[in-house]
Design a protein that fits this description.
The structure holds two protein chains of two kinds. In chain A, 47% of the residues lie in helices and 14% in strands. By secondary structure, chain A is an alpha/beta fold. Chain A has an eight-stranded mixed β-sheet with strand order 3-2-4-1-5-6-7-8, sandwiched between helices. The longest helix of chain A has 17 residues. Chain A is elongated, with a radius of gyration of 21 Å. By secondary structure, chain B is of the alpha/beta class. Helix content of chain B is 53%, strand content 12%. An eight-stranded mixed β-sheet of chain B has the order 3-2-4-1-5-6-7-8, sandwiched between helices. Chain B is elongated. The chains are: A alpha/beta, B alpha/beta. At the A-B interface, α1, α5 and α8 of A face α2, α7 and α10 of B. The structure holds guanosine-5'-triphosphate (GTP) (2 copies) and magnesium ion (MG) (2 copies). The site of one magnesium ion has 5 residues of chain A, from α4. One magnesium ion (MG) binds next to α4 of chain A.
Chain lengths: 278, 315
């Protein structure tokens, strides 16, 4: 009687504990376990080290998206649109990225496209000062599209290298707010038909399975080309990104590891997976 | 409406004569899946399932006993009627009951505010970065003024985040509520001074908006302890984003153990996050949900009622 080979029950319980509490999610965890089952022999399935080695390899594989490296020089001005749900870390990430790109010798300008939330413009202006870059803002409660349009026009006129557009946080279930972003995209195309050159979805690594719905909806509406995973300096592992990267084929470009201007790192799948399971 | 996990459990038990250890086991597996997908923490899921199992097995034994009563008398007739509930409906109902019982408090209604015996009542809002504290501070001040007719003072105790003080000032301005600020002072000093002002000027509720922080950030957690030591808040609410995943358990436990929370506020419930963290936080801190954030505008705050959240977590 050929009974299907199984991961030892006690070991499976331990593995589930690690993967599920890292927010990997039931579906992705099952997928990883299936890969373990099919790629190891009956004997190896009792060997914790062998099992972990497959788990890590499979996790890295889920994160590896076939995408060209980020190249901020491929267009001038390079237009980056930053989107995501409320409180994910968009404005802070823009400040950090502005500083990093300025440090690499690029001339950066920011667009205060959150014209809605209390003191959102002031918050971005402080980051602009810290990074040493100008911030384009419109009048309070004004149209975000026109602020971003103006910033691109100014960058074109002054020969700047990068425009980073901040937008208001919005829950993906709010149709009219998602439509507002679609409009922002259309208006950006009026300034430059090839833009936006990248659209980053900022995801909070403390999110659980709802991050999947966020990513799907934002990608559907806006052609998201990259993900930034923030707040990885906390105790949350951000494991939900495994399923997201794989399903949507969007690369994670950066991770946020703190609240200071230097707390941004380029994403590294090997490092991320090591930390995920430590 | 039930999520597919709970529907699967119900279908699995359809046609079953009675609940037994065996058929309950697989139904529990379906429920387990549903709760994990709703972001309930794994250890909490395990405890919850254990209780459901005990209740389901225990009750099915009781039901069987009742069914054997003579049906001649009136009482027996009534008892027999109660047995006509099908096992699958019975099982789901046990899940719902356990969930509602877990989420609510003994009386079933919202939790009473712990008003100060004399002087202003202090509310301290704490939590991770971006969870919605500042917005909730504005909402809570408005709510206390409108529903409880108390004169509120908002306190801008976040000196770190760029334009955090300004953000609270804009909210205060919108609401016509005073915002206390003390540029250059530390958060414990700010809160202390605000309290003294409130006491002398007759503000009846004081709401402290603190900076977002990680529970593992030792100096910032110590800062919260200092604020607490100086001002002794009557209510300390952990403000939590409804989208939070498994980390809800670590975060809630740390904040509760360090500074003692008296409840939590679940924000961004106008999204489609199932909010399973509510169950985890309730389990791990023993404290109830006090308020729900249902949108960005300042009137979008609701007092918590257990049945609503229970059915959302179930799917
Ligand atoms: N610990 C930590 N905190 C972060 C990180 N990134 C952002 N934050 C904090 O998260 C909070 C929210 O950040 P914001 O930049 O205002 O987020 P946002 O997405 O622009 O928010 P909205 O515009 O209101 O939607 C702030 O307190 C930031 O300091 C990170 O990588 N680590
Ligand atoms: N949709 C929705 N958005 C909310 C809700 N509560 C807060 N927000 C939004 O979430 C974002 C973060 O809110 P804040 O009040 O700045 O959060 P915070 O906890 O004070 O952030 P830090 O001070 O940086 O830790 C803002 O964009 C708010 O408008 C809610 O109930 N629903
Ligand atoms: Mg922002
Ligand atoms: Mg705040």
């Amino acid at each position: 009687l050929l009974r299907k080979k199984q991961i030892d029950a006690d070991l499976l319980n331990q593995l589930e504990e690690v993967l599920l509490t890292a927010d990997i999610g039931v579906k992705t965890a099952s997928r990883i376990f299936e890969q373990v089952r099919s790629s190891l022999s009956r004997q190896e399935l009792k060997d914790e080290a062998a099992v972990w080695s497959v788990i890590k390899a499979e996790s890295r594989k889920l994160l590896s998206v076939d995408a060209p490296p980020l190249d901020y020089a491929r267009q001038k001005p390079f237009v980056l649109l930053v989107v995501g749900v409320n409180g994910a870390g968009k404005t802070t990430t823009i400040g950090k990225l502005a500083a990093q790109l300025t440090g690499e010798g690029k001339k950066v300008i920011l667009a205060a496209g959150d014209t809605f939330r209390a003191a959102a413009v002031e918050q971005l202006e402080i980051w602009g000062q810290r990074a040493g870059v100008p911030v384009v803002k419109g009048k309070e409660g004004g149209d975000p599209s026109s602020v971003i349009f103006e910033a691109i026009k100014r960058a074109q006129k002054e020969g700047l290298d990068v425009v980073i557009a901040d937008t208001a946080g919005r829950l993906h279930v709010k149709a009219e707010l998602m439509e507002e972003l679609a409009k922002v995209r259309r208006v950006i195309k009026k300034a430059d038909p090839t833009a936006p050159h990248e659209t980053f979805l900022v995801l909070d690594s403390t999110n659980g399975q709802n991050a999947i719905a966020q990513a799907r909806t934002f990608k559907e509406m806006l052609e998201v080309t990259g993900i930034v995973l923030t707040k990885l300096d906390g105790t949350a592992k951000g494991g939900v990104i495994l399923g997201i990267a794989h399903e949507l084929a969007v690369p994670v470009r950066y991770i946020g590891i703190g609240e200071k201007i230097q707390d941004l790192r380029a994403f590294d799948a090997v490092d991320f997976v090591d930390v995920l399971y430590e | 409406t039930l999520s597919k996990g709970f529907r699967a459990a119900r279908e699995r038990l359809t046609g079953v004569a009675e609940l037994s250890e065996e058929n309950i086991e697989s139904a529990l597996r379906d429920v387990r899946m549903a709760l994990l997908e709703a972001d309930v923490a794994l250890p909490v899921v395990r405890q919850f399932l254990q209780r459901v199992k005990e209740k389901a097995v225990g009750q099915s034994v009781q039901l069987r006993a009742k069914a054997e009563l003579p049906t001649g008398d009136k009482l027996g007739e009534k008892a027999l009627k109660s047995v006509e509930v099908t096992p699958e409906y019975h099982f789901i109902r046990i899940c719902q009951e356990e969930l509602t019982a877990l989420m609510g408090n003994a009386e079933g209604g919202p939790t009473e505010i712990n008003w100060a015996k004399k002087g202003p009542t202090v509310f301290m809002l704490v939590g991770l970065q971006g969870s919605g504290k500042t917005t909730t501070a504005g909402k809570l001040a408005r709510w206390l003024q409108k529903i409880h007719k108390r004169k509120p003072l908002l306190v801008a105790a976040d000196i770190y985040r760029p334009a955090a003080v300004q953000q609270l000032q804009v909210l205060g301005e919108k609401l016509g509520i005073t915002v206390f600020t003390a540029p250059g002072k530390s958060p414990p000093e700010i809160c202390d001074e605000a309290y003294r002002l409130a006491y002398t000027k007759g503000y009846e509720v004081v709401i402290l908006d603190t900076a977002g922080r990680l529970a593992i950030d030792e100096p910032l957690m110590a800062e919260l302890e200092q604020i607490r030591g100086r001002v002794k808040p009557q209510e300390t609410f952990l403000v939590v984003d409804a989208m939070i995943g498994q980390d809800a358990v670590n975060t809630a436990k740390s904040f509760h153990e360090r500074i003692g929370t008296t409840g939590f506020v679940l924000t961004k419930l106008d999204g489609d996050a199932r909010g399973g963290a509510a169950l985890s936080i309730r389990e791990v801190t023993g404290q109830p949900v006090r308020f729900l954030g249902m949108g960005e505008s300042l009137e979008k705050l609701e007092e918590f009622r257990p049945e609503g959240l229970a059915s959302r977590i179930l799917g």
